[in-house]
Amino acid sequence: MFNLRTLFVLLVARPVVKLWLGLTVRNADRLPHQGPAIVIANHNSHLDILTLYSLFDLKDITNVRPAAAADYFLRNRALAWFATQVIGIIPVQRGGAKKGSDPLAGCREALQQGKVLILFPEGTRGEPEQLSEIKSGLWYLAQEFPEAPIVPVYMHGLGRAMGRGQWLPIPFFVDVAIGRPLPWLPERPLFKAQIAEQFQSLRKKVLPTQESV
């Protein structure tokens, strides 16, 4: 039975990413089909979530939940309904939670329910095709779910196809590389360094030769 999210992926996300932009994926078999699992990706574009959804089988879509900025996606009622009911985001408060609130509560609940959680550990969209600092939220969340694999995904091209400030996607081919699952490490700096190094390694696999030197 198709729900709104599956129909959104079938009728919008996949046509935009695969037909309008063009997509190459390396090691798609490394994506988890069931949770609890955490898929982490670099963040350059509003198309990132559509692209990540396009990597999964349609039968798995209802089990996949992307975390996204509450201050952006809940800024009006229409967008909030579309983001939560159609795209299926888990709203996350950025820039420090209010006293007594837990910004990762929705993510924690999704993992407890056995979902595949999509996170952007840089926290926000960065400069096109550039990696930003890894935030600590992933480390705090992952330490509560040490059995959950952390699967890194690097996407190249989306910052040019529809970067910050752009509202229409420009046809620009997208390359995606998926890494092997990473472990949670008790030392936070080492864990963050591991994530950054893995993104850099995957980045080299998808960059055109002239950009990787």
TrEMBL record:
Q: What GO molecular-function term can you cite, just one?
A: 1-acylglycerol-3-phosphate O-acyltransferase activity
Regions crossing the membrane:
none
Enumerate the UniProt keywords alphabetically: Acyltransferase, Transferase
In terms of Pfam families, this protein maps to:
Acyltransferase
Q: Which SUPFAM superfamilies match?
A: Glycerol-3-phosphate (1)-acyltransferase
Provide one Gene Ontology biological process annotation. phosphatidic acid biosynthetic process
**Can you give the residue ranges of the Phospholipid/glycerol acyltransferase domain?**
37-158
Tell me the pathway: Lipid metabolism
Q: Does the keyword Transferase apply?
A: yes
Report if keyword Acyltransferase is assigned. yes
- Per its UniProt entry, which superkingdom is the organism in? Bacteria
Query: Can you say what this protein is called?
Result: Lysophospholipid acyltransferase family protein
